[in-house]
Amino acid sequence: MAEHESRPNGPTVSLADFELMKTTALFGDEDVRSLRASLPILKDQTDAILDVWYDFVGSNSHLLYYFTSVSDRQPIPEYLDRVRERFEQWILDTAAAQYDQHWLDYQLEIGRRHHRSGKNRTDRVDAIDHIPYRYLPPLVVPITTTLRPFLEKKGHALDEVDKMHAAWVKSVILQVTLWSLPYCVEGDF
């Protein structure tokens, strides 16, 4: 995994707990293999993928709002650029499927970066300071649906693409679940 800052301040999730989450999501070894098979397909397409995702966010003012300045409600270009760099790394990390404690702790950090407990701290910006939980789970749909055409671009058999896409859906759901921890009342996660 690349240069992630993992700052486990607050509740954490153990690898044993994550294993149970994976079991609940029917996420197994074949999914890990399928994610890893997606890495060489996606690694040279990350800019195009991010263009699609950023176009989606940018065309929805209620989502773009969370990248705007508190003072003038205008998007902060430098903030969007830094988040884009991390989002690119997230694509690569998801496809690499290296589930160790460092990765797990970083997922929790991603959650804090969406929540008032940590949003804006990494980038030291004065943007809107909290993304409501109601937007995290629904974003699984545009992220995973728009990813499928990129998985199809390298000529893999349809059943392979289906497996890679299913693994991505499961992985993103698991990650969004981990990102949800800061939004939960202590003891409810």
Describe the structure.
It is a single chain. The chain has one domain: Globins (Globin-like, Orthogonal Bundle). It contains 8 helices and no strands. With 189 residues, the protein is mainly α. Helix content is 58%, strand content 0%.
Attribute tags:
mainly alpha, Globin-like, globular, 0% strand, 8 helices
- Please identify the structural class as seen in this structure: mainly alpha
Low-pLDDT runs of 5+ residues are 1-8
Largest sheet: none
Q: How many helical elements?
A: 8
Instruction: Report the principal-axis shape.
Output: globular
Q: Name the CATH class.
A: Mainly Alpha
Identify the CATH homologous superfamily.
Globins
CATH architecture: Orthogonal Bundle
Give the structure's gist in a few sentences.
This protein is an all-alpha fold. The protein is built from eight helices and no strands.
Set down the secondary structure blueprint:
Elements: H1 15-24, H2 29-42, H3 46-58, H4 61-64, H5 77-96, H6 101-114, H7 140-152, H8 158-179
Helix pairs in contact: 2-5, 2-8, 3-5, 3-7, 6-8, 7-8
